[in-house]
């Protein structure tokens, strides 16, 4: 009988170790989720602030009717490139949040009010 008691004690110890490991993993995930949520809030705040304008304000000399067409196209390409970089960064953040929460990207997009065409 003592042998089965030792085996039972070993199983209990292993179960305690697994539970402790799971608790540590859960705490790490909760911390990471809070960190990502804070990063998201910071990014939203910076997007709404003057620190990070999406496009430079138009200057008085930027009348499109008198501007060189090539310069106008080049300007649009630069702005489109900036937009794509910002959008890609947002999608990466959403994917990280989805992965951390065990959700699909679509579910996270819906939670944050991001539509299919955004």
Topology readout:
Layout: H1 2-48, H2 69-101, H3 105-111
Pick out its properties.
single chain, 118 residues, mainly alpha, 3 helices, 74% helix
The N- to C-terminal Cα distance equals 67 Å
Helix vs. strand class: mainly alpha
Helix share bin: over 70%
The overall number of domains is 2
Question: Which whole number gives the mean pLDDT?
Answer: 81
Order of helices and strands: HHH
Low-confidence stretches: none
Radius of gyration: 26 Å
- Separate helix tally: 3
Approximate strand percentage: under 5%
The biggest sheet, with number of strands, parallel, antiparallel or mixed sense and barrel status, is:
none
Care to count the β-strands?
0
**Rough outline:** rod-shaped
Structure, described:
By secondary structure, the protein is mainly alpha-helical. It contains 3 helices and no strands. The protein folds into 2 domains: 1-53; 63-118. Helix content is 74%, strand content 0%. Residues 20-31 have a biased composition (Low complexity). Belongs to the SWI5/SAE3 family. Residues 9-18 have a biased composition (Basic and acidic residues).
The gist of it:
Belongs to the SWI5/SAE3 family. By secondary structure, this protein is mainly α. It has 3 helices and no strands.
